[in-house]
Design brief:
The chain is an all-alpha fold and 617 residues long. Helix content is 65%, strand content 1%.
Length: 617
Amino acid sequence: MGAVSSCCESCFRSRRSQQYEPLLLENEREAVADLLQYLENRTTTNFFQGSPLTALTTLSFSDNVDLQRSAALAFAEITEKEVRPVGRDTLDPILFLLSSQDTEVQRAASAALGNLAVNTDNKLLIVKLGGLEPLIRQMLSPNVEVQCNAVGCVTNLATHDDNKTKIAKSGALVPLTRLARSKDMRVQRNATGALLNMTHSDENRQQLVNAGAIPVLVSLLNSMDTDVQYYCTTALSNIAVDGANRKKLAQNESKLVTSLVALMDSPSLKVQCQAALALRNLASDEKYQLEIVKADGLTSLLRLLQSTYLPLILSSAACVRNVSIHPQNESPIIESGFLQPLINLLSFKDNEEVQCHAISTLRNLAASSEKNKTAIVKAGAVQSIKELVLEVPMNVQSEMTACVAVLALSDELKGQLLEMGICEVLIPLTNSPSSEVQGNSAAALGNLSSKDGRIASDDYSAFNDVWEKPDGGMHRYLYNFLTSVDATFQHIAVWTIVQLLESGDPQLISNIRLSGLLNPSIRQLALSRTPSATSSVGTPRSHRSQSQSYADTDAGDGQGEIQLLARRILEFVDGDVDGGLPRSVAGSHMAGSSVSSARDEELRRSVREAFSSGSHH
């Protein structure tokens, strides 16, 4: 806001000696005298009511331009020192002055209005009384001081949500966009600040885009002024929330990513933070996920991720999470040195969102490559998860258990994960209050129990070790899921039991065969075709739940699949056995009459796909 710094009292005294004084109307002469007296006692005078306001109003509505100037200057100085909620009786004379043809009156009146617009009640009343129209006219003024004050006032008015749409529809956006290119840095700051304030709703963002703001904002990312950089970066971050706008940016703004990556190295922490957040929003799209890596954005993001300043950690972690969605970015992120910093952030107890972003990124990095899964386990991710998962917030538990479920898809890593004792923390979490945590934990246990090519040396003793403990062990967990009203949980249980029986481990087979807890429920499921409720697990409700998809293994008739799997279990439990396997089994896969081995392989493949290709989020 341009400051108005003239002394009203000396202004009045000097003008009393000028030639026009005899031409003053009587009420104007009295108003001048009264105002001079009030100004001498300004520290104890309330200029917003009573006689002081009457005197200012008389001068404001005078036909004498000099008196109008004096009134406008007085309002500017008074409001600079004190801002309070005011009524129409204060705003009307200021708005009248705002419509003056005199540049000095315009300058001072817009300064006064901008000062008053700091107050919330005043923001609404100014717009209600028609203040936008004269402000727009003044934004078009050739006078830089007038432009600066008018734009500054609009910036203040635009901080109130109730005003934003009215400003967007008032015709203010086109002159604001033009003034954002002003050579005067004060005007540029105020204009870009106003444009930023208009980016907080879908409708207003669209109006802004239609006014041609995008290329202006992008070009100003290269401004030397930190405030302008911040306003433009934040505005573009908000604009990039909308998919249609990201498409326009991708088509027309080829230098956007390069500019934002450069701003992550700005001396200003707030600019660094907003640049990372803008890239995070852009990275909702594949094109930008790849482009950020191509522009060497990972170097700056890694530095921000290791900062001690929470907003930088949070913004960079959110950005890396989105960038990691693209399978082609998995290896570059790992090779750039992100694994250890991400694992370190798993224990960042000051902020649950940081923990979620970190574990979700690790999960994405594990999605497509055996090599990456191995690197993640080798870096200590699973050990950290085991130590932390029972204590972290539920949202983080959901992400951590989903990550283990993805890692457990690797046949090469299953034994290693079992040796680490990961089952000891997964089993208690199958009884979590959160259905997502329950489903993810059970899915991880199911993946650990499953193997494409079984060999005699496969060690399933880890499942025997946790058969009865902790918290009732695998035994109690499987019973709880078999008797659940949720068909998805029933399906996970019977599928997992089939995997355990197929292991050929005599102790496991004996444990299942002799279980008075499990077998009655299995028999009931083998006979029943009564539809059950299906879980939300596998039906993502947000971007954080896309691989909790054991339901996706359920091809077509879910209840029929459960019945068939239950019958397969009974072939083990009730059939004559030879070395722990029913006579109808060839090799390690059951080829009984209930479900073909081809069907079994299809089921395994769909589980793998649910936890790999669908795991990016």
